[in-house]
Each structure stands twice: as C-alpha cells, then as structure tokens.
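This section describes the prediction task in plain terms. A model, or a person checking by hand, is given the sequence of a single protein chain and must write out its three-dimensional structure as a string of tokens. No templates, partner chains or ligands are provided. The sample shown here is typical of the held-out split.
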Amino acid sequence: MAFDPCQYFDGEFKATGCFIDRKGVIRRRFDVDIVATPQASGFILDEDFLYDDGETESRRWVVTKGADHHFTGKADGVIGEATGYIDGNALIWRYQFALPVGNRKINIRFDDVMVEQPDGVLINRARLTKWGIWVGDVLISFHPQ
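The expected answer:
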C-alpha cells in the first residue's frame, strides 16, 4: 500500500532526531513537537524544535498535493519550493534550505526519504549536500500521539 502523507499527517506528533556529519560524528540532537492539520489541498505542519544546546526554532510547512502523487511545499528558510513524490511506502522530498550557521546562512540541499513503518512511526533520512558534496545526514523519527 502506498504511503499517503495527507492521511498520515493529521494530529499531534513527537519527533526526535540528530545531525550526523560525514565523519559519523553526532553534531546536534533535537526534539520536535508537531501539530499536523489536514487541508482540502494537502496539509500544514507546525513544528517546534528544541535543540540539545537549548536553542529553539519554529517552522510551518504548507504542503500541497498535486497530480500523480506529487507534492510541493513551502516553509520559512526554504529557497523556492520543496518538491516530492510517493514511491511505495515512502515520500521522496527535496529542497534547498538557507541554514543559519553563526551570523550567516548557508544554502544546503536536503534530499529526504520518509518511510512509514507498520507501527505508524515515520522514519526520515535527509542527506545534506553543499555544491553536490555530502556534508552529513539528519535522522528523524515521527511518533503519532
């Protein structure tokens, strides 16, 4: 059965994750409280991040369902528009993001693969690249509440 993010993202979620650099070192951990709201044309994700250093961040994704299991999305920090498609029980999701690093922002490409597990947990691996060079991965697990 194909993954349907419009059905999956409905309600409250807890997520936990980390950034692992290309040397395999965990650089940052985080927890996320998420409220997912279905819309006629897709869904909205309101995300509140808490990082292990105490920093907080909020982000709102507005995701729109298109034809043939394709999706587009917008959020603060996303350059242009995120695009994605369903491949079996996975959502393939790609976008450029202006990532704050110190006093500047670095444009990073995110290539996500989100796979729904039989128990309802969604596992997301995001490969991060800069100028085509792999800089690390973000691993996140979403848990419906």
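For orientation: The chain has one domain: 5-144.
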